[in-house]
Amino acid sequence: MHHYSAAVRAPRKADKLIAGCATREGTERYRGRHASRHAEDFYRPLADVLSVSSIGLGTYLGECDGKTDAEYAEAAALAVRSGINLLDSAINYRCQRSERALGKALRALLSSGAEARDEIVVCTKAGYIPLDGAPPPTRRDYNAHLKAQYYDPGIVSPEQVVAGGHCIAPRYLADQAQRSRRNLGISTIDIYYLHNPEQQLDALSRDAFADAIAAAFTQLEQEVAAGNIGCYGCATWSGFRVAPGDKAHLSLAELLKIAATVGGTDHHFRVIQLPISLAMPEAVRVPTQPLGNAVVPLLQAASELGITVIASAPLMQGQLTRGLPAKLAEAFPDLATDAQRAVAFVRSLPRVTSALVGMKSPAHLREQLEAVKR
Fold it and tell me: pTM score, two decimals?
């Protein structure tokens, strides 16, 4: 067991980034090493290239403090040693501390030689302007942070920021990819998501939004070409779950059309992420996605369009870990806890490649691994 110091420091620009990225060969090697301990369907194809665990580690919740940093770093290391090779974060999670905790875990894992960089799929997101280390005490301090970090250097102009802190402008995305690579300590981010792009619809018309997405995707294709990211997609909260008439609605077919326009038939828009749970089952039950002359549920659209789906919030931030209906226990008779059943429901849905579970404690990690053991 690795032991982590309480603090996860911000990486210096001079820190050497770990070379490489997740590959077909590497993730297959990882699956081969760990598959015998897990259920037969535990490893699944991602974008028809990588082999990933159908439970991933999420890093959203928690305080901005050294104790939580250490818990996430230890949980990530334990997860990868236990057969989970999908690690998910966002630059704004816990004021960049979640990315830095994953970076610390990756350095420890890879320096030990037990795991290799090409076996681990590292994902993060850009969209919300991140704080650094701790929330500023006042709105004035936050505005000063924006000015010093983003406006004065010319990375972002104030009119490119919507809802007080969301931006998908190309220069901003280029900057965020570099910051995330430094935080994570890796040269290539395997999956890079636009984070809740529907937030832009608070301020933009549909046409202006399509133009903003095209500019963002153009930048992300350039990041792929430069080797900074492996592929990209959209991680959303409401966009794929609401009806076409809703202000926040995102059409997967339309996003793919834009990706093909800017990136050609070999574009790198490959993955989407959205909440799917017993409490938020819209992806499987509600027709929200225009496809040809029909409107179909998101999972059906993704299947027909060849897009990988990663489920977030399968436990609704802990709300589905207890008090679930008895019928669910009957549906999953081999499982012991509601937390296991809630995640098993999401994993059982067709076209869901992986369910991201926020796990800081070894006990929660072992509880989920127990549910998928062979």
Answer: 0.95
